[in-house]
């Protein structure tokens, strides 16, 4: 097979860094860390422990100290106690402002590692190495970092730019299929809000589109990162435009909370997008065909489209804490058409509930 060169996607504007997509690119980590760094903390889950140990081995001759912080898997990593565990390791190793953190893992780990890097000494160098599709196309690439609290998802965090992001597609070889498909929800999201080519590729041949060895898959990853990079370059701290990346997340985050964070993020967001599509049809101008397109694409990825009918009141209460809400008023991202997102605010609660009935089982 001919070697495809790595692709570099730039984030510019308020903050500048490069996202590299390719295969077997971890030899770029020392350059990403830079000359000034002496100590490195690699934050990772047990599921990628082997990669973490190999990475540590490869860095040890170049840096004064390379430490591992193995954290609990998935959402259990995004807790203040786990951040404190990482701070403790850094404190005991006398980490200074010229030292660095590497986030190696899925979106939960890169969110945590980013938050630890943002808060240690008010900010140390951060290199993100996502190992899930979702991390590569979304969580690790946009500078949103954070942890959950009992009250809700990502309620504590910081906007903090990485120095570099390395998306090494060869790391996806061990990723379970259901995780890969959950990550495709965020890829589809980028298609719905901004990049119809993504939807065309998914519709043309979903098997090839979800096979990490195909050019179609790589194209999807690069297109989705391109959407995120363009939006983040224009609005890093979510003053406005960036809210479009939250398509499907108002209800999706409430579902994750209701499910006590046992559901995959992408799975909850799939239902959230179906809800947002119904809301776009009822309160806006989204066509029946565009709503059907959501249904077809998400179900071709074997993602769920509905949620139990009796849960509305609890979900509504959780949605009040959504970061997009203003003065108690819920705001949703909806579409007027594919690739035409906008904010929907002040919608009557009966309309919100009516749209929910459309996706309720
Ligand atoms: N910061 C952002 O902008 C942003 C964007 C989207 C999602 N997120 C967050 O990302 C999280 C979801 O990320 P996720 O879907 O990657 O979930 P995850 O981090 O929980 O990873 C999913 C599972 O895959 C395992 N895994 C990871 N890489 C693997 C590999 N290469 N081989 C085998 N197993 C592997 C993990 O251990 C975990 O069990 C959520 O917390 C979500 O809120 C953040
Ligand atoms: O990058 C963004 O901005 C997003 O909204 C991307 C989302 O996919 C992601 O799940 C993000 O973590 C949600 O952020 P939040 O601000 O709603 O917590
Ligand atoms: Zn998301």
TrEMBL record:
Binding positions for Zn(2+) per the UniProt entry: 186, 249, 265
Q: Name one GO cellular component term.
A: cytoplasm
Provide the cofactor list for this protein.
NAD(+); Co(2+); Zn(2+)
* Catalytic activity as recorded in UniProt: 7-phospho-2-dehydro-3-deoxy-D-arabino-heptonate = 3-dehydroquinate + phosphate
Pathway in which the depicted protein is active? Metabolic intermediate biosynthesis; chorismate biosynthesis; chorismate from D-erythrose 4-phosphate and phosphoenolpyruvate: step 2/7
List positions binding NAD(+).
73-78, 107-111, 131-132, 144, 153
Residue ranges of domain 3-dehydroquinate synthase C-terminal in the record = 183-325
Which SUPFAM superfamilies does the protein's record reference? Dehydroquinate synthase-like
Where the record annotates domain 3-dehydroquinate synthase N-terminal, the positions are 70-180
- List its EC numbers: 4.2.3.4
> Which GO-annotated molecular functions does the record name?
3-dehydroquinate synthase activity; metal ion binding; nucleotide binding
Mind telling me which Pfam families this protein's record contains? DHQ_synthase (PF01761), DHQS_C (PF24621)
**Cofactor: binding details:** Binds 1 divalent metal cation per subunit. Can use either Co(2+) or Zn(2+).
Report any one BP term from Gene Ontology. aromatic amino acid family biosynthetic process
What this chain does, per the entry, is described as: Catalyzes the conversion of 3-deoxy-D-arabino-heptulosonate 7-phosphate (DAHP) to dehydroquinate (DHQ).
Q: Which family does it belong to?
A: Belongs to the sugar phosphate cyclases superfamily. Dehydroquinate synthase family.
Its name, as the record gives it, is 3-dehydroquinate synthase
Species source reads Leucobacter edaphi
